[in-house]
Design brief:
The chain is an alpha+beta fold. It folds into two domains: 59 residues, Orthogonal Bundle (434 Repressor (Amino-terminal Domain)); 102 residues, no CATH class. It is built from eight helices and seven strands; from the N terminus they run αααααβββαββββαα. Strands 1, 2, 3, 4, 5, 6 and 7 form a seven-stranded antiparallel beta sheet that branches. 14% of the residues are buried.
């Protein structure tokens, strides 16, 4: 969209005030020829006259120059943070959907019947700004695994407080999301996760 030029604004405002070029010239102490040149963009008012012209037309200096501040809509970004073992993924292509912030090698103890077995696992702390990232995780996670995530909604680097979910649990079959830790919701969620074999009952409460 083209911004009105100062000559267009002077001409339009003069006509709004029902003034002739000569009458405007007399008010401002210049010649009619000077006003005519302003309105055809052949020349411009002296810079010292601009405040007087703006005051005469009851507009601001910004309006005289045709300047309007165009406010860009605030861009809100979801930042998801998840920690998980790489073995929890069917496909490491999930790592193309964000950034690995931290990567470490850890030893885990697994119970297999009456015996135990220790294994080394690579665990990553992963950050993604993609919308609906929990549902992207769902495409890559192996059955029987549960990934715990938190998210922050950011605008200009500051956290936005709204009613969007900030806590997410993801398994192959379902995504649980909530903002406030409603006790009833959490209890029902844990029962579901126990029934699905994602967590042990003794570890849940």
């Amino acid at each position: 969209m083209n911004t009105p030029k100062i000559h267009e604004i002077i001409r339009a405002k003069r006509r709004e005030r029902d003034l002739t070029q000569e009458e405007l010239a007399n008010i401002l102490g210049v010649t009619k020829a000077a006003v005519s040149k302003w309105e055809t963009a052949e020349s411009y008012p002296d810079i010292t006259m601009l405040p007087q012209i703006a005051q005469l037309f009851h507009i601001t200096m910004d309006e005289l120059f045709g300047y309007t501040l165009e406010l860009q809509p605030l861009k809100i970004v979801n930042e998801y943070r998840a920690g998980f073992k790489l073995s929890a993924l069917e496909d490491l292509s999930l790592l193309d959907h964000g950034t690995v912030k931290e990567c470490k090698l850890e030893k885990y103890l697994y119970y297999i019947g009456d015996t135990t077995e220790s294994r080394w696992e690579v665990t990553v702390c992963f950050i993604s700004n993609e919308n609906d990232f929990p549902y992207t995780v769902q495409k890559y996670i192996r059955s029987g695994n549960l990934i715990d995530m938190v998210s922050y909604r950011l605008a200009d680097g500051k956290i936005v407080e709204d009613d969007k979910p900030t806590k997410h649990y993801v398994c192959k079959d379902k995504v649980w999301e909530y903002r406030l830790p409603n006790p009833k919701f959490v209890r029902e969620m844990i029962k579901e996760q126990i029934a699905m074999g994602l967590i042990d009952e003794e570890d849940a409460f």
